Amino acid sequence: MLSRSIVVQSLRSIRDRFFDRRRQRNEESDGQGSSNEATGPSLDNLSVDMQFLIMTFLSPQDLCRLGGTSRYWQSMVRDPVLWKYFLLRDMPLWQSVDHLSVPQVKLTGSAVLDDSEMQLDYMAEYLRVCPACRNQWQYQPRAFESVTSFFQSLVPLSEPQFAMFGPGLEQLEISLMNTIMHSPHVLPVAGLPHRQIDGIGSGISFKYKDQHRFNIATLYSTNRTERERARLEHLSLRSKLFVYEEDSESNIPLSINSMFNQVCQAVNGFIFVANAETDRGTDREWEEECAQIRVMLDPAVGAVSRPILVLSCVSRETADRRRIPCVTIAHQLQLSSLPNPWMVQDTTAETLTGLLDGIDWLLRHSGVKL
């Protein structure tokens, strides 16, 4: 995190340069100099420290409006150090990030910007990835696309199917799927499972917004007894979903178990439930989860256009329990290297906060007209 003093120092240098240039222009025009400070009861006359404090309370939209009021504020608001500060400050608080909005810049807490970073437009980057700005810039279909969508709605479509897997299904104190099953006000159950696969997989149909049916095939790593024992004793189990190298203790999968090949080929997309609690395992577990996602999304199994929703899940939200930021989850899982559309959405197993936002994104990217 950049310190506030570094940002104030950068803003102060911009202010000094601005008024130096103004004084020089005045001297050239009428031979009379002007002071290096603004005068009168205006925002310009406040100290740089106070100006920066005010800007920290403004929304991105209001900051842009402030930059349009004068040349002075345009130069202050465009400061790359200021927007890098906002990026590092706000990213841990964002509840979602996707393949179109993941920051593409070097985000470190270094005290100064090197030459390469000074060329980056941190303001444009912030406005591109900030959730509040993303919501305002959502794609609006053109007229002919709306007509096409209407006619498509008259044709009955097959029920979209998604495969759900990941350690967040098994490692958390509160079961995400149990909460979903007992929360008809959030996602009403439209159909119970007709069969199970070796006790570790089943499909349940739900109804989104009381009209869009979709099916989730929940794929666990092993049966219920082994999962519960592993959770209580903090054991690491090899998932039966995957095939591993023989005579190796590594949990890096090589391919999907043939038993689940047909399921993974038939689905329209995937839901990966990540454990976002800060006391989760080691870097080795991140590596294993990256490999699991890539095996599931193998182009040999299905089209690269199939989306994957990553639910960054914790058991419950409390003041003393912090979660891993969704941007960090995306980085640890190396999602930016995937050719598939993806999204990371903060979710709470106890209340299902954020779940519907993720489901909405998943259905839209699976071709469902909402």
From TrEMBL:
* Region described as Disordered: 22-42
Q: Polar residues bias located where?
A: 31-42
Q: Where is the F-box domain?
A: 46-86
Q: Which SMART domains match?
A: FBOX (SM00256)
Under the cellular component aspect of Gene Ontology, which terms does the record hold?
A: SCF ubiquitin ligase complex
Which GO biological process entries does UniProt record here? protein polyubiquitination; SCF-dependent proteasomal ubiquitin-dependent protein catabolic process
What the entry lists under InterPro entries is as follows: F-box-like_dom_sf, F-box_dom, FBXO4, P-loop_NTPase
Q: What name does this protein carry?
A: F-box protein 4
* Organism for this UniProt entry: Cyprinus carpio carpio
